[in-house]
Design goal:
2 copies of one chain form a homodimer. With about 350 residues, chain A is α/β, with parallel strands linked by helices. The first copy, chain A, contains 10 helices and 14 strands. In chain A, strands 1, 2, 3, 4, 5, 7, 8, 9, 10, 11, 13 and 14 form a 12-stranded mixed beta sheet that branches. A two-stranded parallel sheet of chain A has the order 6-12. In chain A, about 65% of the residues are buried.
């Protein structure tokens, strides 16, 4: 009984992406709504820069959606900083009822999932989902201060400096405007992830630690909905990076699902592997958020994609838990998004 | 439009409380389901002790409710530790679909609110809400390691060592068993809090920082539902403590609501002010969770309370954000719980 796929009818009707300099210089750089080449966003600390990115992202999304904060019934937000201060300080000025989340890098999917459920069941008319990560605040909190100049492991991923904001509202069949050629991105199904113990204790290989969570969620979804990878144009994971993506594809094959031809990962898309020195690819809450907002949702609306699975994975660990000998736990939440 | 009271029909049908030695020696000590006088719960680190409390609490709640983990569709959980590892490591073994939350000390209300919404709208049959705090893990993370022997400010609160777990399911009118004399605790209404900037920067006076958030939520609730404090047997805040409770009562009077005769605070109830040296009273996610589970819900079921407001307040700050000159932000989520 527990843990079934939940049906939703929620349109992601506006979104915005804010990113840093390295992201601007990547393959998707021109698609982001706002970039600051120096990553500071006018702030004196990296933590405040991250908050400012969230504020900017939600502000731009509200402007695009022609919505005022008073119209938004619930705001779901989270980030990687201790006590999720990136979200709280960045967003409190909007005055929107606030649900703080912690799902590590799965937060983009987690927040969109809850927002979609809420508007689908008419608990409120509009809901927002916002998340972020910042390379500089993440490095000094999770690994070492930048000034230390530590050498990165080959599997280490590069935390994306970016924030994404999404606005969702209930969607009813009769509103479909496909005939007019303008498609809408509608969240049709959601599946909440289960926390998995990966057995991995290497903080420099999060992709490997998170792949089993993506495996669990994907297999549960395929089994319950009786679909296969071929049903979808794209199966998009959040930030498994190069290492984790390869592991997920192998693990899926062992379960009888070949996702190679339809799988991609936001952590593989956001940087250029050859010219940008990011080792294992991109990561962080902001990675999937900005790629989904800037690249994927527009493709759905334009008709270049018609039915996708989006699942963001999060490593539920802390630097202290690893020092105390724990393995990395991970979770992956899934949304099926379809053009209607 | 935004931020309305949300109607729910959710029965809290089982709950459990796990607490430490100081809590066992307090006025409610005999009511807790399980206590460890040494606060260790068999673990070698305080962080693992906190995880173990969450595991025990959910385990006991499942046993009381005669439910297996497979029957639970969604688990909402969070705690005060960096990256909320108390919840992730404590609960991953149950294999229940997991939504990680961060609402600081408001997490008990936040998790119950989301769980109640979910079962009320039949997104799943059963949902669980679990939260915790631990004096020893909180002190070394937020303030100073215990070994340092720092002197506490008069307004400083004592983080409760405790975990509470709640199981909720949809409740339909026809099921009412009041005629049989056995009441049920039903969540009838919920209101999501808005993040407030308290203007307080003193990390040793969280009660003062959180009172404005409780004020905002309570006033919004009274206005929208057109009720007054007299409508309720009890208005129970989570962990404002002595200082914060006095401030809330004064602030409410200024808004035209006299709550003095019906207000109490879990942080005032859990320790004996005279014999236990806790200065400002109890605090922490676990404070409201164990008091609600062990004291309040049984009183509702027995008929000693028939209609209450429960609102837990959380300070959305981090030690780093205060060092960077930010004020303490706070949020308060509200549930109306009625005997049916």
């Amino acid at each position: 009984m527990g843990g079934n796929v939940m049906k939703t009818r929620a349109e992601i009707f506006a979104s915005a992406s804010v990113a840093g300099g390295k992201e601007f210089n990547g393959p998707l750089g021109k698609l982001f709504d706002f970039c600051d080449p120096c990553d500071r966003f006018g702030m004196k600390t990296w933590e405040k820069s991250e908050s400012e990115m969230q504020r900017l992202a939600l502000n731009i999304a509200l402007a695009k959606g022609e919505i005022t904060p008073e119209d938004v019934g619930a705001l779901f937000a989270g980030d990687l900083l201790n006590q999720c201060v990136g979200s709280a300080y960045g967003l409190h000025g909007f005055g929107i009822p606030y649900i703080g989340l912690y799902g590590a890098c799965s937060t983009c999917a987690e927040s969109l999932l809850l927002a979609s459920l809420m508007v689908s069941h008419k608990m409120c008319n509009l809901a927002a989902a916002v998340t972020s990560s910042h390379y500089c605040s993440a490095e000094r909190q999770y690994r070492t201060p930048l000034e230390y100049g530590a050498q990165r492991a080959p599997t280490a991923q590069w935390t994306v400096t970016g924030a994404g904001a999404f606005l969702v509202r209930g969607f009813h069949q009769e509103e479909s405007t496909l005939s007019s050629g303008k498609g809408k991105a509608v969240v049709r199904n959601c599946l909440i992830g289960r926390v998995q113990d990966s057995g991995v204790a290497d903080a420099a290989n999060m992709g490997a630690a998170m792949a089993p969570a993506a495996l669990d969620t994907l297999c549960r979804f395929f089994k319950e909905t009786q679909t296969t990878p071929e049903t979808y144009d794209l199966i998009l994971t959040g930030d498994l990076g190069y290492e984790g993506s390869d592991i997920l594809r192998s693990l899926m094959k062992a379960e009888g699902y070949d996702i190679d031809s339809v799988h991609n990962d936001c952590g593989r898309m956001i940087y250029d592997r050859e010219s940008q020195d990011v080792h294992g690819g991109g990561s962080g809450c902001g990675c999937s958020a900005v790629v989904l907002s800037a690249d994927i949702l527009p493709k759905i609306k334009r008709g270049e994609l018609s039915r996708i699975l989006f699942l963001a994975t999060g490593a539920m660990m802390s630097p202290d838990s690893l020092k105390q000998g724990e393995k990395v736990l991970a979770v992956a939440h899934l949304l099926e998004i379809e053009r209607e």
